[in-house]
Amino acid sequence: MADLHETSERLIAPVPRITIQAFCETQDAAGMIEAACLDRRMQKAHVKVQMGGGPAAVEAYRHAPTPNVIIIETQGAKSRPLECLDSLAEVCDEGTKVIVIGHVNDVQLYRQFLQRGVSEYLMAPVDPITLIQSISDLFTAPGAKPVGRTIAVVGAKGGVGSSTIAHNLAWTIARGHGTATVIADLDIAFGTAGLNFNQDPPQGIAEAVFAPERLDGNLLDRLLSKCSDNLSLLSAPAILDRTTDLSEPAFDNLVDLLRAAVPCIILDVPHQWSAWTRRLLIAADEIVIVAAPELASLRNAKNLLTLLQQNRPNDARPRIVLNGVGVPKRPEIGAADFAKALDAPLTASIPFDPALFGTAANNGQMIAEIQPGAKASEVYADLAAKLTGRPEVKRGRANLLEPFLAKIARRKAS
Ligand SMILES: Nc1ncnc2c1ncn2[C@@H]1O[C@H](COP(=O)(O)OP(=O)(O)O)[C@@H](O)[C@H]1O
Ligand SMILES: [Mg+2]
User: Fold this and answer.
1) Structural domains of the chain, ranges and CATH numbers in brackets
2) What would the pLDDT profile of 288-345 be if each residue is shown by its tens digit?
3) Alpha carbon of 352 to ligand 1 centroid (Å)
4) CA–CA separation, 388 vs 266, rounded Å?
């Protein structure tokens, strides 16, 4: 699992709304491409996989327009790849890109492919994530700003403190890492980000999702309100004039614009099960599930984990944070038992601390502003480091060595 988290640090931009047609010679390649299509980063692409390799592609485009990407598998010289590419070149629309999946490691052949304008040559067996990365790279301009990473925070049930964690996490990443961050409050009717950051901006997320046709980078700029250095808020109006039974892709455009604008986006996802919350969770780069140490949270966290792992086969599993641990007199499921029942490790446990959290909420402040040394503040810093893949920026030798030591420890463990 650690490895998956590492590869996700090399962020793959979601593939845009394009058409892809693949012509395979082996069932393995066809199956691999079908598997790649299930990945969240391929959600918007239209993919068609067929057999027949290069000759089938030549035949297919004799009278039909070419898609954005053609993938051709070739097992070797007997499939006459170069002849096929030459014939294709005559009919290819401008802008169509070709990826070749080959079975021979031959520099000469590779060069000849490149000379014919092939964008990428991948050696079989190709794993789905490599193919997705290659396709994604074709549509990312060289030198373009890397896309922002989205971190979705959701509660296994209502009121477990997921918004509190989302807000503190965003604040910690913005401050501790100096990373420009947006905290987006997706709980349009009841969200508390405005209260917790002591902000009452006139506009926010409602303008972005209720009038999607108007949304562009400029409007988004105006909808964001500045909370602190590096931290902007996309706040919820928290009024009931509209219901939030939104369409499944309601947030797609907003998330795309945010990704293009800032390196880190924290999505405070309300605890509800709708087409759009499900889609947002599945599409996020990282997911944090917040649970209370009790049975309903455990059951729901387990169900969420199962569903998300099924729908994110090429991603690390969501992180689980236990919050509000140690409520006096309340029977609890211990952290170890909780993890065992989930069959997944817990990323962190945050103690129940009503005085601290109550004060923070009343003042509209973050936990670390009130008590930087609190256990919760440490957990947020640690979580921020894990989620961004970087330790907090601090001076001092020990901290400079930390990432290397951690890497060595990881290597030893694996
Ligand atoms: N560890 C904690 N100890 C005590 N109170 C907490 C803790 N975490 C969150 N709270 C409080 O719990 C309440 C619900 O938190 P919130 O983040 O709004 O939950 P959710 O978004 O999951 O519905 C808030 O009043 C918050 O201040
Ligand atoms: Mg909430």
Assistant:
1) 14-138 (3.40.50.2300), 149-413 (3.40.50.300)
2) 999 999 999 999 999 999 999 999 999 999 999 999 999 999 999 999 999 999 999 9
3) 9
4) 11
Give 248-274 pLDDT, tens digit per residue.
999 999 999 999 999 999 999 999 999
pTM reported for the whole predicted model: 0.88
Q: Which two tokens stand for residue 362?
A: 């009343």
Listed residue (267, 269, 260, 150) closest to 215, CA to CA: 260
Closest ligand 1 atom to residue 167 Cα is 17
Identify the bridge partners of residue 350 per DSSP, sorted by sequence position: 323
Q: By alpha-carbon position, which residue is closest to atom 27 of ligand 1?
A: 357
User: Which H or E run contains 225?
Assistant: strand 225-228
Picking from 251, 216, 248, 257, the residue whose alpha carbon sits closest to that of residue 236 is 251
Measured CA angle at 370 (ends 366, 371), to 5 deg: 110
Residue with CA at minimum distance from ligand 1 atom 21: 163
Burial profile 42-60: b = 16 or more Cβ within 10 angstroms, e = fewer: bbebebebeebbbbbbbeb
